[in-house]
User: What shape does this take?
Amino acid sequence: MQAVVVEEGGGLSFGEYPDPRPGAGGVVVELRAAAVNRRDLLVRDPPDANYEFPKPFVPGLDGAGIRRDTGEEVVIYPAVGWGDREEAAAPEMRFLGGAVDGTYAELIAVPEENVLPKPRRMSFVEAATLPVAGLTAHRALFEVGRVQRGDTVLVLGAGSGVATFLVALAAEAGARVFVTSRSAEKIERAQALGALGGVLYTEDDWPAAFRELAGPAHVVVDHVGTTWMESLRCLDRGGRLVAFGGTGGGHATIDVRFLYLNWRSILGTTLGSPREFAAFLHAAESASWSPVVDSVRPLAEAEAAQERLRAGEHFGKVALEIGG
Assistant: This one.
């Protein structure tokens, strides 16, 4: 098969790679699309041991395609061995695209429980954006953030793939949604997805500007990491900061007394369980929103797709088209 491979030193190569062989209870999927995630960059240049894997391997967590044995159109759940608990994955859980060969390939072998029906109203490219960004957003908002109709929700970083899902899902649920961005254009584009407005985080004291615009938030969803203190300042008493990333860095400084004296909480999350993903896909079939796709490139141009993500130029998901 044709695949993109992470080589020693972190470079990417495109070419022939051995066809995958499914284990007991496994299936092979002929992939038609994959989506690019920040983790795909981190496994090339690991910031810590969590992203270090023996090379070469095929990167990529997200994918959609055709199940070879049945002909069904399916979406790939991007982790193996989640476990029985809904609130957190088992310690032995492994992600695709590092530890297990991923979706930057024409074929992938995964356990049968990792393939779920593709929403019929979506293209393969749209469906391929759902596993990581869509499921992470759904879990952050509803399972962890406990967002309800009428809540005020602030989403940091309007242009990221997860952020576009956060805005659309929260707005559909009846929340008052606001965003931050370094770009007024991206704030306007977020408003087209259901946001009511936003603030530029490049301005001095943007948390004060947010509170003047929207009032205090019930929930702030933060993937930056270094902005935790600013996010906490945007919250109402008893509000919840939901954190799922560290695009700005791996360390944050907060005022501990400010946190507990105002009954604020910091809640960590990432991918949801297979059961949650199945429920999310079922709901997506009849939802009013559609995934926001920034750009689509052929698999051979995975390097360029990753560079667009790295540069932060995108709005929505960067995707790869495969085969067909």
